[in-house]
């Protein structure tokens, strides 16, 4: 009985000491350090609150946050759209009539991206698209705090072509295709003529 | 006619004090809890969030009064008023300084205890009137708890009254310092009437009153429904307890009552056990610290400091200890506190007969 009572007092005092310790340790706050810092886990005392909008926890440049596409490097291979588990990437490609140019790693670009939309409201931040991209043009950045007033603003449009340009390219492709078809038919016609 | 003006002035001063104290306690409770949990607490409104409580109260003032359709409207509307007024009236009989007491009643302590029990009624009205099962459960628990804990609290206070031979709080305070005309003995043997200070406090006049004070303190925590005895509010079980259905100013009044109650029970404890407005500093031969630090201004200062310390301990305990279970709560009251309080009263009687 007496032992029980003593135990009650002992445990209460222990608890009170613990909270008082934390109370007085709150005069200083822990330094805001990135996770890569070797001292990240060694800060044991002080308040942990990061006053978010004023102070931000440093994150790596290539984090797992918003997607960003470097259109100059994109070869419009559509691999990212295919691997995306939630189908948040919507690409419409137009074949070019000739080689457009080269990406920074030397791959020749042969497709125009008439549409390259990423719906960040759908994105689940798995990062698969960044892995499959052959030219590493789609990356995840360190931007994470993005709130929009309108839902449509969550769809990021990366295509650098205007609708008029896209139409022009489409027409050029159609013209080329028609020319090719015509020449093919002409060739076939010639073949049949020769046989007769 | 002039005394009516005085009444109104005193009443408004007390109301202003309870309101200001509530704002202060709200802020300090949030800060203390934050620091204990390694957080920062409110930081945005004002320097270090110091205006957060004002912002909260402004928000509450703007809110709509919502009365549930199925509620008992009369009880629902009256309950917060009764809860607050019963606590607020308790302040009337508390002494603040030598000669400064709103109403010097011969039955001061009895009056306070009687008027505080009415709060239970208000809580029951709130719970029943809300017509909400959580509110009703909360208020039932609250009533059971407050009625039970009034017994050890009352009896431990009685053991002080037996030593002091008065129910007038001003007189009880005077008897714990240098202003008394009667004998003051430290631990019943050493005459400290001229020395005063901490040595003359009731808890040191008769050492068993320390136990009585601990009993009273625990019981007072239960009476103001604070953790570890907060089962009437038990956020995790009962949503919010008896005040779930309240909004806006009515909720603010319940809150005000709760925090004023903290101060009130703390102050009763200070007056009865810890010397009230008497200075803790003793007279040491020619260095008469006690005489220098006794007066109206000093009295207010000392009683505020002591009571705020007690309130700080209440807050500290709340953020340290987990909540009691209902059956533990009841058995603790009836099987531990009440017998101990009776024992204290018995010792008080013997003390009075043999030592004084």
From TrEMBL, chain A:
What Pfam families does the entry give? Fer4_7
Q: Keywords of this protein's UniProt record, alphabetized?
A: 4Fe-4S, Iron, Iron-sulfur, Metal-binding, Repeat
Which stretches are transmembrane?
A: none
Which residue numbers delimit the 4Fe-4S ferredoxin-type domain? 63-94, 114-143
- Report one GO cellular component: membrane
Record bears the keyword NADP: no
This protein's superkingdom?
Bacteria
What GO annotations for molecular function exist for this entry? Answer: 4 iron, 4 sulfur cluster binding; metal ion binding; oxidoreductase activity, acting on NAD(P)H
The record's listing under InterPro entries reads:
4Fe4S_Fe-S-bd (IPR017896), 4Fe4S_Fe_S_CS (IPR017900), NADH_quinone_OxRdtase_chainI (IPR010226)
This chain belongs to which protein, by name? NADH-quinone oxidoreductase subunit I
**Native source species:** Daejeonella rubra
TrEMBL record, chain B:
Its membrane topology is listed as:
Multi-pass membrane protein
Gene Ontology cellular-component terms listed = plasma membrane
Keyword Translocase attached:
yes
Q: Where in the cell is it found?
A: Cell membrane; Membrane
Single GO molecular function: oxidoreductase activity, acting on NAD(P)H, quinone or similar compound as acceptor
Against InterPro entries, the record matches this protein to: NADH_UbQ_OxRdtase_su1/FPO (IPR001694), NADH_UbQ_OxRdtase_su1_CS (IPR018086)
Q: Which UniProt keywords apply?
A: Cell membrane, Membrane, NAD, Quinone, Translocase, Transmembrane, Transmembrane helix, Ubiquinone
Under catalytic activity, the entry for this protein gives:
a quinone + NADH + 5 H(+)(in) = a quinol + NAD(+) + 4 H(+)(out)
Q: Which residues cross the membrane?
A: 6-27, 74-97, 109-128, 149-167, 198-219, 251-275, 295-317, 329-351
Its EC number is 7.1.1.-
Instruction: Please give one Pfam family short name.
Output: NADHdh
Single GO biological process annotation from the record: aerobic respiration
The entry describes its oligomerization and partners as:
NDH-1 is composed of 14 different subunits. Subunits NuoA, H, J, K, L, M, N constitute the membrane sector of the complex.
User: Entry's HAMAP family?
Assistant: NDH1_NuoH
User: Which family does this protein fall into?
Assistant: Belongs to the complex I subunit 1 family.
Role description: NDH-1 shuttles electrons from NADH, via FMN and iron-sulfur (Fe-S) centers, to quinones in the respiratory chain. The immediate electron acceptor for the enzyme in this species is believed to be ubiquinone. Couples the redox reaction to proton translocation (for every two electrons transferred, four hydrogen ions are translocated across the cytoplasmic membrane), and thus conserves the redox energy in a proton gradient. This subunit may bind ubiquinone.
Name of the protein in question: NADH-quinone oxidoreductase subunit H
Give the organism's phylogenetic lineage. Bacteria, Pseudomonadati, Bacteroidota, Sphingobacteriia, Sphingobacteriales
State the encoding gene: nuoH
């Amino acid at each position: 009985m007496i032992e029980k009572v003593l135990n009650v007092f002992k445990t209460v005092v222990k608890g009170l000491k613990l909270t008082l310790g934390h109370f007085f340790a709150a005069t200083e706050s822990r330094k805001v350090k990135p996770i890569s810092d070797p001292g990240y886990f060694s800060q044991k005392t002080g308040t942990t609150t990061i006053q978010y909008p004023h102070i931000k926890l440093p994150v790596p440049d290539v984090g797992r946050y918003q997607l960003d596409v470097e259109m100059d490097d994109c070869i419009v291979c559509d691999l990212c759209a295919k691997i995306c588990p939630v189908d948040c990437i919507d690409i419409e490609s137009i074949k070019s009539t000739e080689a457009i140019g080269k990406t920074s790693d030397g791959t020749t670009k042969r497709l125009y991206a008439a549409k390259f939309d990423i719906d960040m409201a759908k994105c689940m931040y798995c990062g698969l698209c960044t892995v499959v991209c052959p030219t590493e043009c789609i990356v995840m950045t360190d931007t994470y705090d993005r709130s929009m007033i309108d839902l449509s603003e969550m769809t990021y449009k990366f295509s650098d072509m205007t609708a008029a340009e896209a139409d022009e390219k489409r027409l050029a492709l159609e013209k080329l295709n028609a020319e090719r078809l015509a020449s093919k038919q002409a060739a076939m016609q010639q073949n049949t003529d020769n046989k007769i | 006619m002039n005394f009516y003006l005085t009444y109104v002035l005193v009443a408004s001063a007390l109301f202003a004090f309870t309101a200001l104290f509530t704002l202060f306690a709200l802020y300090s409770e949030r800060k203390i809890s934050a620091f204990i949990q390694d957080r920062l607490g409110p930081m945005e409104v004002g320097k270090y969030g110091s205006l957060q409580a004002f912002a909260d109260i402004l928000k509450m003032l703007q809110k709509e009064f919502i009365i549930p359709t199925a509620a008992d409207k009369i009880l629902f509307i009256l309950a917060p008023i009764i809860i607050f007024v019963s606590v607020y009236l308790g302040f009337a009989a508390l002494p603040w300084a030598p000669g400064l007491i709103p109403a010097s009643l011969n039955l001061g302590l009895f009056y306070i205890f009687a008027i505080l029990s009415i709060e239970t009624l208000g809580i029951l009205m709130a719970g029943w009137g809300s017509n909400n099962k959580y509110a009703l459960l909360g208020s039932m628990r609250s009533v059971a708890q407050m009625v039970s804990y009034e017994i050890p609290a009352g009896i431990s206070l009685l053991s002080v009254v037996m030593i002091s031979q008065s129910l007038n709080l001003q007189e009880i305070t005077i008897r714990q310092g240098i202003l008394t005309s009667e004998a003051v003995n430290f631990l019943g043997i050493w005459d400290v009437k001229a020395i005063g200070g901490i040595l003359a406090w009731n808890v040191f006049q008769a050492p068993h009153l320390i136990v009585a004070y601990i009993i009273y303190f625990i019981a007072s925590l239960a009476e103001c429904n604070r953790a570890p005895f907060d089962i009437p509010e038990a956020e995790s079980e009962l949503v919010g307890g008896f005040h779930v259905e309240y909004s806006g100013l009515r909720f603010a009044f319940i809150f005000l009552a709760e925090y004023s109650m903290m101060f009130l029970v703390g102050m009763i404890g200070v007056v009865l056990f810890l010397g009230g407005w008497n200075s803790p500093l003793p007279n040491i031969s020619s260095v008469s610290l006690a005489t220098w630090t006794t007066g109206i201004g000093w009295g207010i200062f000392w009683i505020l400091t002591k009571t705020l310390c007690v309130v700080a301990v209440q807050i500290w305990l709340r953020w340290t200890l987990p909540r009691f279970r209902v059956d533990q709560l009841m058995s603790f009251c009836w099987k531990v506190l009440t017998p101990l309080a009776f024992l204290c009263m018995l010792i008080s009687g013997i003390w009075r007969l043999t030592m004084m």
